[in-house]
Design brief:
Length: 121
């Protein structure tokens, strides 16, 4: 079930990126990979992304209710809790594609051009 959940979430994210998402961070791509930008859709909120966000939040809520209803300490509770947590992370990933959150700032420290500007300690 974990494999199926991760596969569906990954496929949903890839389809949403191909159709177009408002927050696609291409600023961390190196210059020799600029051609990859042609595979990304336009920077707009598409109905596919809205449907993917709604479906992933509904799936997270459903898995959470299964985990809550399972007997405490059982294997069913542990499995449903794991699936709920992974679905919540998938929903968060979909939300980051829609929200104006610049994730390039998170990884800017690793870019070679920015590392040269840092003082040596």
């Amino acid at each position: 079930m974990v494999f199926a959940l991760l596969f569906v979430m990954r496929l949903s994210t890839k389809l949403a990126i191909y159709a177009g998402v408002p927050n696609m961070s291409t600023d961390i791509l190196p210059a020799h990979l600029d051609y990859l930008k042609s595979y990304f859709g336009p920077r707009r909120l598409t109905p596919l992304l809205v449907a993917a966000i709604a479906a992933s939040i509904a799936l997270t809520a459903w898995l959470g209710s299964l985990a809550y209803a399972a007997p405490s300490g059982s294997a069913e509770a542990a499995g449903a809790s794991l699936l709920c947590a992974l679905a919540a992370l998938g929903a968060l990933e979909h939300l980051f594609l829609a929200l104006p959150f610049r994730d390039g700032a998170l990884w800017g420290w690793a870019l070679p051009a920015r590392r040269r500007d840092l003082p040596l300690s």
